[in-house]
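Dear colleague,

Thank you for sharing your sequence with our group. We've completed the structure prediction you requested, and as agreed, I am returning the results in plain text so they can be pasted directly into your records. Please verify that the sequence below matches your submission; if there's any discrepancy, let me know and we will rerun it promptly.
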Amino acid sequence: LLAATPREQWENPPEDSFLYSLKMYTEVYGPGKATKMGWYDYWQMRTYNLPGPEDIQSQSELESVDRVNRAMMMGKMPFAVPGPSGWWYTGALIDYRPKEPFSSSVRTPLTEGRFSKMFIENTAFYREGLKPWQRGIEIGMAHGYFLIGPFTALGPLRDSPVAATVGLLCGCSIIGLVTCGAYIFGTTIKPTLFDKEGDEPAKGWTELVNWHALGGVGGAGFAHALLTVFGYE
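Please find the predicted structure tokens below.
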């Protein structure tokens, strides 16, 4: 314990150190002091307060932990990748602090990486140069095409001849529910993200929602046609 504790802390060790716990026990128990320890105090001493040989860190290990803690307090986090037996530390540091110091978001390679940003920026919702109807129909067709699959393959009528038709109806129902929710959002919040100059609030959003509904039904119908023609068993 003394080797793992700086000499200047021997007389007054930190309260979270094992040396502090040992010093408190020696001040309470011993010749001329208390000689009997309660069972709970003894159990807590052996379990938590006094270390085993593997719990005592060397000075170099303590300095390494201190460096990591100081780096994390400054917004730097060690970059590690998952491996077969745990985490492999690369030696690099990641600045996880967001631009807004009091924001609850955390910067990570996944959210701040170049590939992630390029992927998100190329989705129909954020891609530059598209009109609202083009965004809506692309988003709707993508969602409608994939929506009917789970209902067709996993629904209660999956073994019946009408499984694809049931999947189509379920997919169209979900598109309808999403469309109603988007209309309510546009009526109450009135987003102006896709509005042109001089347009009424939420006009671009309404146009996107209309074409999203059309694209969703069209994508579901196209998937239903493929299932009907080529089968799904």
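Summary note from our side: The longest helix spans residues 203-230.

Kind regards,
the structure core
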